[in-house]
Each structure stands twice: as structure tokens, then as C-alpha cells.
Specification:
The chain has 8 helices and 6 strands; from the N terminus they run E-H-H-E-H-E-H-H-H-E-H-H-E-E. The protein is of the alpha/beta class. It has a single domain, classed as Rossmann fold (3-Layer(aba) Sandwich), CATH 3.40.50.1240. Strand 2, helix 3 and strand 3 form a beta-alpha-beta unit. Bound molecules: 3-phosphoglyceric acid. 3-phosphoglyceric acid binds next to helix 7.
Length: 211
């Protein structure tokens, strides 16, 4: 066994609350989002983890979630690397549109395909495969080597940038990833084997309400 990799999606953002496609736009956390980040941080404190380093995106909602988690585990100010490789999927022309309005315009099925399929990009944006094509190399070069040498690593990022990692870590098919939604603020604790495969995965919270 090697180190520990903790993945957590940011807490609810203003645009999650307003039901808007967000992507690379930069809304803040809502009050509930702050509470969710605190709950995730508390779960990690109860779990007893102390991190060696944290990674997050260049977007406010993920950075604030990261900071709130670090406060909860008593590690305010821990070295944190911010990189746009971990940003949310670029939602292209859908960014800023209401998700229900988009369903009314293009149909439920089409919008679901844009949101959850592996390789169908939203107009002008990134598919999950495109997102993975920047997340995965970053994970391989910057994050995984640390875990393999025994470090405990926090990654606070986004629904789809993390789905692209979870797909590979959990060995999910293109069909299986369609049904995967990550809840806001719920940490996933992975222990990895020396060959980079997953030895164990523990979810510290409830993923069932995710949509
Ligand atoms: O970018 C967004 O709108 C959200 O963060 C994730 O959206 P999704 O659940 O539609 O993929």
C-alpha cells in the first residue's frame, strides 16, 4: 500500500443553486456550499487524516472548498497547488444557460448526453474525454507520484474533472460513467497499490442525492 488520495467536489456554488451551466465561469460558494465543505472537512478530521499537500483548480469554488477542508483538519496554510488542468469541464456555449431552459430547447435526452456521456461535447465545449485528456496527464505527472511515495494528497476540484479521474480509478466503462454523479462536499478516500491501481475506496458521506 502507498499513500492516500482524497478527491472532493466543491460545495454548492451560486450557479449550482440557480441551476446554470457553469464550466469555467467563476461563481462563489453559497452558504449551503460552505456548510457542505465544512461537513466534508469534518468527516476528514474524524477520519483522522493529515495531508502532505493539496491540489485545486484556478476557480474560486474549488479553492474555497479546499481552504475550508484544510481549516477543519487543522492545516490552514498547507501548501496548495492551483492548476487549471483541474478546472471543471468547459461547458462552451452552454455556460451561463439554465439547465431546464436547455432541456426545453434541446430535449431531456440531448442535455443528459452533453452532461454525462463520455465523448459527446456540448457545443463549443469539452466532452468528458476532452476533460480527461488534460486532467489525467496532470494526475499522472503531479499527483500520482506523491501518492506512490506515501503522501496523503487532497484534490478539491469539480464534478466533471473528478468524474474523469473516477472513471479510470474505478475502471468504469463509457456506459457506467453515464450514471455517475458526484455529490458536493463529499470526500472519496482512495488508497492505492504500488502499481497505481486502487486498493480501497471509502466515501465519507452520502452520494445518493447527487444529480
Ligand atoms: O459546470 C457545471 O455546471 C457544474 O459544475 C457541473 O455540471 P453538471 O452536473 O451539469 O455536469
Amino acid at each position: 500500500m502507498t499513500g492516500t488520495l482524497v478527491l472532493v467536489r466543491h460545495g454548492q456554488s451560486d450557479w449550482n443553486l440557480k441551476n446554470l451551466f457553469t464550466g469555467w465561469r467563476d461563481p462563489d460558494l453559497t452558504e449551503l456550499g460552505v456548510q457542505e465543505a465544512n461537513a466534508g472537512g469534518k468527516a476528514l478530521a474524524d477520519y483522522g487524516i493529515k495531508f502532505d499537500i493539496a491540489f485545486t483548480s484556478v476557480l474560486t469554488r474549488a479553492q474555497k472548498t479546499c481552504n475550508i477542508i484544510l481549516e477543519n483538519v487543522g492545516q490552514t496554510g498547507l501548501e496548495t497547488i492551483k492548476d487549471q488542468a483541474l478546472n471543471e469541464r468547459d461547458y462552451g456555449d452552454l455556460s451561463g444557460l439554465n439547465k431546464d431552459d436547455a432541456r426545453a430547447k434541446w430535449g431531456e435526452e440531448q442535455v443528459h448526453i452533453w452532461r454525462r456521456s463520455y465523448d459527446v461535447p456540448p457545443p463549443g465545449g469539452e466532452s468528458l474525454r476532452d476533460t480527461g485528456a488534460r486532467v489525467w496527464p496532470y494526475y499522472l505527472t503531479e499527483i500520482l507520484p506523491r501518492v506512490l511515495r506515501g503522501e496523503k494528497v487532497l484534490v478539491a476540484a469539480h464534478g466533471n474533472s473528478l468524474r474523469s479521474l473516477v472513471m479510470v480509478l474505478d475502471k468504469l466503462t463509457k456506459e457506467q460513467i453515464l450514471g455517475v454523479n458526484l455529490a458536493t462536499g463529499v470526500p472519496m478516500v482512495y488508497k492505492l497499490n504500488a502499481d497505481s491501481t486502487v486498493a480501497s475506496k471509502e466515501v465519507l458521506g452520502d452520494m445518493s442525492g447527487a444529480h
